[in-house]
Amino acid sequence: MNIYSIDEPAFLKDLNEKELVQLASDVREFLIESCAVTGGHIGANLGVVELTIALHKYFDSPSDKLIFDVGHQAYIHKILTGRSADFATLRQYKGLCGFPKMRESEHDVWEAGHSSTSLSAAMGFAKARDIKGEKNHVVPIIGDGALTGGMALEALNHIGSDKTNMTIILNDNEMSIAPNVGALHNMLGRMRTNTQYNKFKHGAEEFIERLPQVGTTLRDLADRFKDSTKYMFVDGIFFEELGIKYIGPVDGHNFEDLGAAIKTSKEYDGPVIIHVITKKGKGYHPAEHDKLGIWHGLGPYKIETGEVLGTKKTESWSAFMSNTVLDRAHKDESIVAMTPAMPVGSKLTKFQNELPERFFDTGIAEQHAVTMAAGMAAAGMKPYLAIYSTFLQRGYDQLLHDVDRQNLDVLLGIDRSGLVGADGETHQGVFDLSFIAPLPNITLMMPRDEKEAEMMIDLSFSTPGPMAIRYPRGNVHGIDMNEDRGPLEIGTWEVLREGTDAALVSYGPTLQTVMEAADKLSAEGIEVKVINARFIKPLDNAMLDTLGESGVPVFVIEEAMLTGGLGSMISSYMHDKMYTNKMQRLGIDNEYIEHGDVNLLLRDIGITAENIAGRTKQLTGETHEKNTNR
Ligand SMILES: Cc1ncc(C[n+]2csc(CCOP(=O)(O)OP(=O)(O)O)c2C)c(N)n1
Ligand SMILES: CC(=O)[C@@H](O)[C@H](O)COP(=O)(O)O
Ligand SMILES: [Mg+2]
């Protein structure tokens, strides 16, 4: 079938089993070829080709609400709803979003990017439907990994007690990004293999149906016997005990099985969960046999060999941080490492292999991970919690209430800080300054290179109290690690360049752009001081007082939200001390930054050497004249 000819899913209603199988094959071929060029979450999507086709065949989107959890596995949904032609722009600047996007299609009824939100959203949709007296189906599609997220369990608790009509699709491929973890995962494993219970249950139900109508006693007894035997086969049908009818395990690559299960669920009055068994990466050998989670989502690759293209010359920031912590952990038995389901992204697999007894993957459970780290610290350990900036948002109260308020020795490695690019607005790591700044005890820092990062790690492990080192997605500089930079003291900034016409203040990778701007200004006779504000909190008050007393214009540039960012913090300090320096800030101004190449996104924000130089000239106009006329 010509995939590009699809504009709406209605055509699926008329396809027979053979035609559906052919369509699935054509979609798989299209996905493998398209993602080889653009990159993307190819593994997750190859696993849900038949499932997504079946959902659009047996439900009527958009009146029936298909709600994808995380949403990284919605490529087939996008193909079936007329967006095949846009796949050449997948996750690119102004191109097709890698997650559901309401503005792209009426079929995208819910957006995501963060895990475990689909069931709560589905509950909202279902209750609104009931209040309005509508009859549409609500169908959250949640993976076995996302099911380990606390929000999902909170929602199940509510859905089951309320007996809300919905069809929950549990897409169980035994994988999170890496192999899935946790007791729920183990329980699903038993359910996956316990087909005999389902046959027995089906047989028992048929037997009970045939019992003579001799009042209810005999039938009640038989029913209770059937229910009491279920524990003989599996560790209790977790879902049915919550009041949610369990159907499964169902072969997620078999259209007949999927159709039968969905039809049954549509007729049932109350919540149903269909436990669908799929194979992540199905149909493409490297992805199908991926044990590490590399094919969960990645950049362009060579189809014939599975070779991932564009490997970098230096190691990633994640690898540098995790390997440095591992090195220290070999010398200090109190150091432990933790991750909420991101061992691959945070490059902690080496730590896991070398010190398995001091490594913890909590599953997609950021709240639990942060407070578990706090508990570890309270018990005298030195936990290193590697957590993406965007996912730390999920554990904010735990950071405030458990870690910071109790002033515990937790070290946060805030990965993917700053713009991440292809994952877009749900993943940009640009809010953490704003929500960490108000916390009284934590030290928040960002190194300008890997040498400073190493110094910050050692400083953190030797300093009591909560510490956080934020670092970007991407690779380290590959510098000489033997350079002696002297001691690193908390709250001390570093002058990278002297100048008297203005002071440009920044941190992390943005400093490179600021230094380029300083060179451009120097070529025009304007000499600016460039300050590495490597401690975002606490501020370097002494250096700010020096700037305040000199009256030099101050320009703060940061790849973060302006509100609550370093610029806000410095402006408040200067204002409270009644300094009269002219101040300027450059950063993200009250908007979500969508997906695209980071350099293009930075250009749109104005974080370029040209714009910084231009803004500085405006700022220093008179000052420079005065200085040159001395
Ligand atoms: C709150 C949150 N934490 C972590 C992630 C990173 N993440 C994206 S997909 C994924 C694994 C999801 O596994 P599963 O739900 O089983 O989906 P599958 O990829 O197996 O289809 C993780 C950990 C996220 N998107 N949101
Ligand atoms: C969908 C999701 O949240 C993850 O797959 C995320 O895309 C990983 O990001 P990195 O590629 O930066 O590790
Ligand atoms: Mg999974």
Q: What would you say about this model in short?
A:
The chain has 630 residues and is of the alpha/beta class. It is 42% helix and 14% strand. Helix 15 (366-378) runs parallel beside helix 17 (396-404).
Entry keywords:
elongated; 4 domains; binds magnesium ion; Rossmann fold; seven-stranded mixed β-sheet; single chain; five-stranded parallel β-sheet; binds 1-deoxy-D-xylulose-5-phosphate; binds thiamine diphosphate; 24 helices; 630 residues; alpha/beta
CATH class of the largest domain: Alpha Beta
- What is the CATH homologous superfamily assignment of the largest domain? Thiamin diphosphate (ThDP)-binding fold, Pyr/PP domains
User: What is the number of beta strands?
Assistant: 17
Number of discrete helical segments: 24
Sheet of most strands: 7 strands, mixed
**Silhouette:** elongated
- Which structural class should the secondary elements be placed in? alpha/beta
Sheet-strand content, in percent, reads 5-15%
Averaged pLDDT: 94
In CATH terms, what is the fold-level topology of the largest domain? Answer: Rossmann fold
- The CATH architecture assignment of the largest domain turns out to be 3-Layer(aba) Sandwich
